[in-house]
Amino acid sequence: MAVAKYNNENMLISDEAMEKLMEIGTEVFLPAGSRVHNDRIHILLEGSCSLCIYPPSGEQSTLIFFEPGMMLNFVPCLLKRQRLHAITKRRMVKRSEFAVRVRCDSRCLAIEPDDFLEALKDSLPLNAMLVHALTENVLNLLSLASNSPLMPASQRVCRFLSEIVGSDHPQSVPVKLTYSEIATHLGVHSITVAKIFKKLKEESIVEKKGRSMYIRDAERLHRIAQGVEGLGCRAKGEDGDGRD
Q1: % helix / strand / coil in the chain, to the nearest 5?
Q2: Residue 197 in contact with residue 179, Cβ under 8 Å?
Q3: Burial of 5 (0-12, 13-18, 19+ CB in 10 A)
Q4: Count of Cβ atoms closer than 10 Å to residue 52 Cβ
Q5: How far is CA 114 from the centre of its chain?
Q6: How many CA atoms lie within 13 A of 61 on its CB side?
Q7: Spatial CA neighbour of 49 closest among 71, 19, 77
Q8: What is the DSSP string of 76-116?
Q9: Residue 77, Cβ neighbours under 10 Å: how many?
């Protein structure tokens, strides 16, 4: 196969693991708005995707945002080949209600599950990468679970922002992240999110330049995210508790 071009600078995959993945994988292009088929494991090389849930109620929610270097669809692929505890099976949500959505044009390495499992047998770097991916996903889900609806909406939005901004300076908010997506992810109204961002701009906590948005006051963003201080705006339909 042709060698995939990738930038490993911001990825947490070792060069040894990436070399092995490129041997057994095939590079694929995923257009924005499409869904990632769950018949193969994918390593995101470039772009952005999200794990969404589509319950019968129709209220879509975003569970995890995937950035370059993260693994997609390895859980459903491995579940077909692994036994689960009976209690776990009863608790599971139907896989048909989940989907990985491509948020912008992206590139991935697509790997057949059997090839991945075979490569795991004698590759310590791949095993370390799998443990890291599982840990990362669990932490992301715990973060989502702990972002309680009992918190003021502004605190929840600021907490979310502090978790997803890049490490570059100035810190930037992902361009493809819309108010609607943030609202869906946090379970608040999109108008509330728009009002919070308006207030964040007025308070010089964030700044918009062209299509990009940057964090100007990361320290204050962190204080609001931790509930140390409020922002002074109230969620749509929220009585408030005096902190906002």
Answers
A1: 40, 20, 35
A2: yes
A3: exposed
A4: 19
A5: 26
A6: 13
A7: 71
A8: HHHHTTS---HHHHHHPPPGGGEEEEEEEEEEEEEE-HHHH
A9: 22
Write out pLDDT tens, residues 82-130.
676 666 666 555 656 678 889 889 999 999 989 988 998 888 988 888 8
The token pair that represents 228 in the structure block = 């140390």
Tokens representing 192 are 């509330």
User: What are 13-70's pLDDT values in tens digits?
Assistant: 788 888 888 899 999 999 988 988 888 889 999 888 888 877 665 666 777 788 888 8
The first and second tokens of residue 150, run together, are: 């009992």
Q: How far is CA 79 from CA 5, 59, 90, 205, 236, in A?
A: 30, 26, 14, 43, 41
Length of the chain in residues, anyone? 244
**Please, which residues have CB within 8 angstroms of residue 113's CB and are 6 or more apart in sequence?**
40, 41, 77, 78, 80, 81
pLDDT digits (tens, 9 = 90+) for 181-224: 888 778 788 899 999 999 999 999 999 888 788 898 988 998 88
